Amino acid sequence: MSDAAARRHQGQSIRTASQFVPKISEIETLGTSTEQRGHDFAKFLKSIHHYALTTFRNSKDISKAIVEFKDPLAALKNTALSLSEIRKKNSLDPTPPVEDETETDKFIREADNADRRDEVKLLYGIQLKSLAERETDLNQNLTILWATIMGQCTPALQEEVHGDPDYLSKSSTFDSVWLLQSLQKITAGVNKTTNKYHSAFKATKKFYSTQQTSNEGIDEFYNRFDNAKDLVGLFNADIVDLSSLLAAEKIQDPQATKETTMQKYLAVALVMNANKSKYEALWNKLENDLLVGQDSYPKTIGDATHLLTNWKASTAPTPRPNPATSNTDRRPSTPGVTFLGAEWAALVPIPANDNFLALAGFDSTRPTFAPSRKPPHNISAEIECAKCKKKGHYATACPFIVPGVQLFQFVRPSVQLNQTQARIILTPGSIIVDSGSTFNCFRERNLVSNIHSCDPFSTLSNGGGMTYTKKGTLDVFK
């Protein structure tokens, strides 16, 4: 085909794509890599997964085919439990005989064991019936899924699929896993005439160039990132050779595996491919932490997405207008005063078993304390919330939704005032008593007796913050 003919053919494809009307409007469409459409395989996969979950019967079984590209029929059969597994799961193991068992006790035990065997058989039969129904629904769903996927593909993309040597055999069994994998390759610019090494190179290059855009959320970015990773695997390639990294990991942790090592690599890759304008401060912090011997890089993909989602970068000080050139603000400037953005986390239900790991500001060294929903998330054993009754934060900054409990709270301003002290306020021997305070602090040790160590706790005020490590008894007024 000449260059002119190729351009005409591509132009026809573009016009056809622009005129294409999908079968189902709420599902994303797909086109070939040459068609100028806003198609995205990750978005398509997410939308068709949502459609299947909300439309298909027993849709959970077909989810593995869409999300994990795994044979759902094989996965369904693997869920079947044997008679012994059912006995163990439901605590229906027969009761063994005991020493000096009487005839009456033996009769009762054997009758009970007979009831247990009958119950196990009943549960096994119920399971077989349920699996048979789910298998019937799954076969029907795979047929519907195949037709639904093809209905969202442009004619040019359908032609590419039809031209695959395996199409006839795969279409006869409605192998939707094969269809999704083929579409992922084709939309990435790979077809049956492409060199496999070139395809692997392009897929690997795409993975390392998958970066978060300025208006893209973490979920959407991660879906593209994960899709790019899976594409590399489709060409039997690896995004990185883990042999040396795994060997180094095993020196420090003999339990380290290829999977845990890959998780660490992917976690760092996800963070470093995040949007620069949003996360450059985070990158700098991670590097600076290494300088003081602290490795703060995430260890799993879950840790990485949690870090990116909850990272709040400090904003720069707000400059004041120049009084000489502006009449909008004639207030005198105050040295040592800065305004910092105050980001409040959303309220969440109290987690089961008091597991506060997912809360922003969680301190792993004090896992039983719940941080406040406002940075810097000061955690203190001396503070018990009047709202949720958990230690670590005040009620005004409680991160939890507590049904039936409502406290009056002041609406805090969106700025925090930090002042630099210009002169000494407290002279030796002075005491400031705050009758509404959780605790009182003292400058002179000789005013307090019975001084002993306590769990460290921090406070924050307009004048700054301080960490306390000792407490004692005030007896100056005795």
Based on the model shown, name its key terms.
478 residues, two-stranded antiparallel sheet, two-stranded parallel ribbon, 44% helix
**How are strands sequenced across the largest beta sheet?**
1-4
Number of strands: 6
Counting DSSP H or I runs of 4 or more residues, the number of helices is: 15
The helix fraction, in percent, is 40-55%
The proportion of residues in beta strands is 5-15%
Instruction: Quickly give the structural class.
Output: mainly alpha
The profile of the biggest β sheet is: 2 strands, antiparallel
Overall form: extended
Mean pLDDT: 79
SSE string, helices as H and strands as E? HHHHHHHHHHHHHHHEEEEEE
Outline of the structure:
With 478 residues, this protein is mainly α. It has helices spanning 3-19, 41-55, 60-67, 72-78, 83-89, 103-151, 155-162, 167-172, 176-187, 196-208, 218-234, 243-252, 258-272, 276-291, 301-310, and strands at 338-341, 348-349, 400-401, 415-418, 448-461, 464-474.
